Amino acid sequence: MTRRKPSFDQLTSIRIFGDASYSPDGDRFAYLANTSGSLQLWLQPAGGGFPLQLTALADWRVTSFKWSPDGRRIAFAADRAGSEMHQLFVLDVGPQGSWPKQLTDLPSVQHSLAGWTADGRIVFSANDRVPTEVDPQLLDPDSLETTRLMTGALHYAAHASPDGNWLTVVKAIGNMNQDVYLVNLNTLEHELITRHEGDAKFLPADWDADSSGFGLLTDLDREFTGLAHYSVESGGWEYVHTPEHDVDGFRLSRGGGLRAVVENRDGASALEVLASGKGEPVERVALPFGVLQSLDLHPTRSHALLTFSTPREPTNVFELDLATGRFERREQAMLGGVDPDDLTVPELVSFPSFDREIPAWLFLPDGPGPHPVLVSIHGGPESQERPHYMYQGLYQYLLTQGIGVVAPNIRGSTGYGKSYSRSSTATGEAETSGT
Prior knowledge:
About 5% of the residues lie in helices and about 45% in strands. It is mainly beta. The protein is globular.
């Protein structure tokens, strides 16, 4: 009996999930889901349970959120009718719940939520002073008093230290060039800590539990992004993990017992758990073939909370036992009655150019060929075609119609080193024509 092919509606009937994060005590986790029509905040017990919708804002879409240090509140950013002019809100997370309190109401201003300070102020960035500049700021959610920390460029607040003394701020110079400043939250003085020449990525990550330093993602003097550690005491940084592929992210549990590094291996995500201290690898955790979208570590247990997608299934929410490797689903993205095991996994292939092989993902339909093939070139300028549920089911639908897909990572793509990202097809054509 011939199996009925899923329809376009079935393959594209999906729910959208955003970031997920454990509460500070680890008893529950919050996440973003469009179950009720638009992205809203939801809550579940850690380990799985009945999901509770925390927000139901008509015409508003929640795009990011952060737990307060005591776990009693969640700050979140939302935009109205897809305007991308995000405003800030705060929500009490009690037994009876509460209605969100809107903290900003500037429809022509973009607010970017970063987190909380130890004394309960919200850390954010906004272009409220000058539309072409972004200033990192602190906001008291009760008095609405605002403290502006820096001006004069595109400055984005990043991470506040657990002791409340420091804040990292990123100055965006270009897509492949940033600087990091360290702001003293007691004196409001700031210091540039990443002086460099030429283009180099610098992105701060989580602080150490004792606030003595923080993780730093950078590709200075390297082809690939590695993990470094900055020390407040010494005022300098050094590399601690430098694989021959990009490090995509670094997470440290709130208690400081777990460190995890997310790596980009030919487009697929890999996860390594690191020992305490500077971060020698302990073990590699086996992830399914796909792309990790967000990661949070449980504050006390050897568990991780992930949003993760594969070529056969859109982003979903999972909990991962780092000790056993058990990977458990906490939500359901596919709504069309399609078994993901019946869908296609792409093959990583390459084709020759004048100086190197160009990588590509090849999706082939079932049955003997030849098949028509769609060449799908990703946007950018800097980006990478990765093995997830591309275009929310479009690739899989084309395969049901007997149409293959080849999705190359053309010159200029990220994930293959700085030299490849800086190259272009125009350069290649010029050099080829001269030979």
